[in-house]
Structures are given as structure tokens and as C-alpha cells.
Amino acid sequence: MQDSPPRGPASTDDKIDYACDIIDRCLATHLWYSVSEARNLTRISRAVLMPAQPRSNRFRLPEPPLTASTKIPFIDLQSQYRRLKPSIERRIQRVLDHGQYILGPEVMELERALAAFSGARDVVTVASGTDALRLPLMAESIGPGDAVFLPAFTFTATAEVPVALGASPVFVDVDPTTFNIDPASLEFQIARIRREGRLRPRAVIAVDLFGLPADYDRLGEICHREGLFLLADAAQSFGASLGGRRVGSLAPVTATSFFPAKPLGGYGEGGAIFTDDPARAAIYRSLRAHGAGENRYDIVRIGTNARLDTLQAAILLAKLEVFEDELAARERIAQDYDHLLAGHVAVPPRRPGATSAWAQYCILVKDRDRVAQALADAGIPTAIYYPKPLHFQPAFRQYGDGPGSLPVSERLCLNILALPMHPYLDRETIERIAGTVIAAVTVPAVKT
Ligand SMILES: Cc1ncc(COP(=O)(O)O)c(C=O)c1O
Question: Is 155 in the pocket of ligand 1 (CB under 6 A)?
């Protein structure tokens, strides 16, 4: 018997039509459908789709575009440093004074502070977000012959970790209303892998793209039913919440990154693993320190070196002091962008009951490269996350099913554009950026 997705269109052609339909309507109307409307779309028929209510532009009209000489940063770490300079310098000096550069007291202090902030019982800091994904998969003994399901619309690290352990990534499409892993596509891929019988389904890595948590209620149900390990890749979402619970306590195990550009970023590499399971936490602590047991020369498993530097922990402790305030600023800035841009471009999706950490503020625009060039000409940097879905990347092509197999991910890569986003963006700059975007999408391209 043929498996088909439990919800949504059955054939690949239908799926492409369905994805393009939603994204085209967003581009044409500049409005996102609510999640329930999109669910109706998948369950009933496209005809029931009604656009969401337009939002009003409550700010004054944007200023004329910036000139190239007034460059603005994409992420402004200097403003944050000026704010935190005394605290950062005091904390760094303390580390230099005690000299415990590896697993010093600041590392334990940071782990306690992150646990209190997130609501997770245990936090194990590690050397990068990539290590925060790698250690939990190592602890589950994931390796050759195992299938790890993950979205195609993500950063390469999500897929590179299972491959490095010898496992096979199975790419899953994303939900056009959240950009996160689509539970219906996940169920379809699990059924396909089971039917083919070549790989053992073992784990799901959900990514909280751009800072918005994935649908952990549905993902938790699917993983429980299918006996799969659920790992949250929260590299972009630390500080976000869902149903009143913070990232770190939404999945059995969560990985985050402290890469400098992340919502909570250090001045170098860093990451952390969150779990409520003390047995797992103990294994992660052992794995990050070469598989040590009772002491560092008692080697009880094959581990690695994945410890967070004490100096990075000290810097992150200083940054954590203002993190709540920075998250509130990111939310305010996102709302300002929304109000200025809604009706002109498709603004980022939101989920009822969820807050985003706003690692990125991404719009969808039709003529993306021309709009990006107009912004660059006005001294406004943009970024494209991501120019290709992972199953199109040469390194991962062998694991995917080629063009047309994951239509939403493929389509988003053509239209997505990230605007400057950081907690120190002032209103005037936001209005100038929005004004330049609006001018670029309004003025038709000049024919030569
Ligand atoms: C979704 C996602 N996963 C994993 C990572 C890896 O984090 P790190 O660069 O700290 O290793 C990143 C970093 O950009 C990311 O965006």
C-alpha cells in the first residue's frame, strides 16, 4: 500500500502547487495566513483560504533611503559592548586573576544561570552549537544505518552532525506558515523510510528557525509514537518561548549556540545543552571532557574535547544580565518592522502562544536580488538565510530526492531576505530601512 502524507496534497505536483499557492498569495497580498487557515488549506481545499486582516502602518511615512555613505551594521555588537564594558572587563579580569581557564567557576555559574533562565533542570555548556548537537547524538549511539530527520531549510550544522557520526540525514519540508519542520512532512518521511527498510529511524532534529520555536507538542507526540529521540536545534532561538515555557524546556534535549551573532552570543565559539534528565546530563559532561568518569584519567567512554572556555562563560554571564531587556528590544523592533512593512512585503510569520528570539527578521520579496541590491546601494546590509535548501547542496545531494521533493523549502530559498536585526536598532534607522525596502518593492525595475 502506498503511504501518503496524513494531511496535505498527495502527489508531488499537488505539493508544489500547494506550497507555491501559499507563498505566492503571501507575496501578492503581503499577508501571512494564520496557522489555522493554512491547516484548513492542507485538510480541506485551497478554496477556503482567506487572507488575514491587513495591519495598519501606524508610524509616519519612512524617510528617503540612506545614502551609501551612511552604512548601518547588520548586527551591532559594538553598541552592546559599550553598554556592558565595565561588567565584561570586571568578569574577564576575575578569570585572569584566578587563572582557571578550563572548566573554571564561571562555567558552573553560567550553567546554573542558564538553567534558571530556561527552566531546564540541567545545562551542560560546550564549545559550540555544533558540539551541542553532536554530543546528544553521540550519547544515543546514533551512527551508520540510522536515519535522522531534519528540515531542509536550515544551516548546514544541523545536517552535518549526523553525517559526521555516520548516520543519514532525511530531509523534511518546512511549514510555510512558520518556516519550521512540517509535522505532516515528517510523518510522511518516517513512513517512507520504514517502508523502504534501508535505514533505521532514530532521531528528529527540529530547528527553531530565525528564533521561532517549532511545534514541539506535535513533534513530541510523533516522536513518542515512533520511538524517536527528539533534539531541538535552538541555535537561533535561545530566549524564545512557547505556551509560557522557555526554549531549553520544550524538548527532551535542546542545543543552543553562543556564536557571536546569536541572540545570546559570546566573543568566540560556545554552546549549551539543556535537559531535564540528570542521567543524560552526566553523559554529556563526560563526553565533553574526553569521556572522563570519576576523574579525568578514568576514561569510561569515547568522548571528545568540547568544553566551553572559562573566559567565554565570563563574557556570557555579563551578557545574560541584559538579555531579558535585549529580547524585549528585539520584539519591539520586530513589531516596528511589521507595522511599517506589512502590506508592502510578506513580514515574518508568528505563532499564537509563541515568542521569538528574533535572531533574524526575514521578509519574503518577489524580486529578492534586486531588492537586496537597492538596499546595498543605500548602505543597508542584508543576508540570505538560506540561498539553497540542504538537499540542493553538493555535500548533501546524495541524501535528498532532488528538485521538487521539498517544495516549500525550495521556494523560500528564492524569496527570503534578512534585514538588519539587533537590540540596538533605533526607530529612525528602522524607518529608513523600511522606507528603502518599500521604495525598492514599489518602483518597477528600469528596463535597459
Ligand atoms: C540552526 C543552526 N544550527 C546549528 C548552528 C551551529 O552553531 P555553532 O556555529 O555555534 O557551531 C547554527 C549556527 O549558525 C545554526 O544557525
Answer: yes
CB 278 within 8 A of CB 121: yes
The verdict on 59 and 186 lying in the same domain is no
**DSSP character string of 45-83:** -GGG--PPPPPP--SPPPPPPPPTTS---SS-HHHHHHH
Centre of ligand 1 from the C-alpha of residue 339, in Å: 30
Whether the Cβ atoms of residue 329 and residue 239 lie closer than 8 Å to each other: no
Mutate to test the pocket of ligand 1, among 181, 236, 273, 409 (most ligand atoms within 8 A of CB): 236
Q: For ligand 1, atom 7, which residue shows the shortest CA distance? A: 129
Report how far residue 390's alpha carbon sits from residue 409's, in angstroms, rounded to the nearest whole number. 9
Q: Which three cell numbers, joined as nine digits, stand for 30?
A: 503581503
pLDDT tens per residue across span 142-196: 999 999 999 999 999 999 999 999 999 999 999 999 999 999 999 999 999 999 9
pLDDT top residue among 287 and 59: 287
Residue 129 Cβ contacting ligand 1 at under 6 Å: yes
Evaluate: CB of 256 within 6 angstroms of ligand 1.
Answer: no
* CATH at residue 35: 3.90.1150.10
Which residue bears the cell 533542570? 121
Does the CB atom of residue 236 touch ligand 1 within 6 A? yes
The DSSP H or E segment spanning 256 is strand 253-257
> What is the sign of the dihedral through the CA atoms of 318, 324, 325 and 331?
positive
CA–centroid distance for 304 within its chain: 26
In a domain, 133, yes or no: yes
pTM of the model: 0.89
Ligand 1 atom with minimal separation from the 154 CA: 1
C-alpha distances out from residue 281 to 137, 188, 275, Å? 13, 32, 7
Phi first, then psi, for residue 441 (nearest 5°) are -85, -15
Same domain, 295 and 415: no
Q: What is the pLDDT of residue 30?
A: 53
Q: What is the 10 CA–ligand 1 centroid distance (Å)?
A: 33
Q: What residue ranges in 159-252 does DSSP mark as E strands?
A: 168-172, 200-207, 229-233, 241-242, 245-246
Is 125 close to ligand 1, i.e. is its CB under 6 Å away?
no
CB of 207 closer than 6 A to ligand 1?
yes
Q: Are strands 241-242 and 245-246 parallel, antiparallel or unpaired?
A: antiparallel
From CA 59, how far away is CA 64, in angstroms rounded? 15
Per-residue pLDDT reduced to its tens digit, 198-225? 999 999 999 999 999 999 999 999 999 9
Domain finish residue from 289, 320, 351 = 320
